[in-house]
Amino acid sequence: MTSPEESTQISADNAGILRRFYDSCLKWVQTPYGVWALFLFAVAESSFFPIPPDVFLMALCISVPNKSFRYATICSLGSVIGGAIGYGLGLGFMDTIGVKILDWYGLNEKYETVQQLYKQYDALAVGAAGFTPLPYKLFTITAGAFKINFITFILVSIVSRSARFFLVSALIYKFGPPIRIFIERYFNLLATLFFVLLVSGFLIVKWFL
Predict the structure, then answer these.
(1) pLDDT tens-digit readout, 38-94
(2) In sequence order, which residues have a C-beta less than 8 Å from that of residue 100 and are 6 or more positions away?
(3) Nearby residues of 168 by Cβ (< 8 Å), 6 or more positions away
(4) How many Å apart are CA 166 and CA 172, to the nearest integer?
(5) 3-class state of residue 107 by DSSP
(6) What is the pTM of this model?
(7) Could you give the CA distance from residue 11 to residue 21 in angstroms, rounded to a whole number?
(8) Which end of the chain is more exposed for a tag (fewer CB within 10 A), N or C?
């Protein structure tokens, strides 16, 4: 069992990792590759990558606030495409690639539970994962494995992912440069909260579904 001191150290370590990632993002956004990096992060996160693209999206929006909604559009598009890739992995390669991805995250035992969610809520289950910290890749891969209607899956993904990323961009667009000062002043606290929410999403799936 992890002690409070060890938990604090883990949170601090992850806050440090996110800080370095954030600082790297601020450097990347000054290059022609910043937008492409955002797009690729969004694609990867929806199908296999553990870190959500929100940090990169925030860095881009803070760098150029008047392009916030453009960045949200790119991030949403990449995420939906990544979701479609995850769907394809589940549809055609669940027994090989899909299982390995879920096993890496320790989510294989929730396979049948998610199937029941799909039976009860259909693709709306994807919408919950698309907007919240729940592991979106679990739902994109299993949506393909359970042959959820692809058009409905895409439409729900567009709505939920866009709502999430446009909310982030709208806040930065509204508050502009002052929010960068706030983020950098309280970055460790915000990074810890971000990490807790990310882990909580996985724990909710593992413990309560």
Answers:
(1) 898 899 888 887 777 887 888 888 888 888 999 999 999 999 999 999 999 989 988
(2) none
(3) 54, 57, 58, 61, 72
(4) 10
(5) coil
(6) 0.73
(7) 15
(8) N
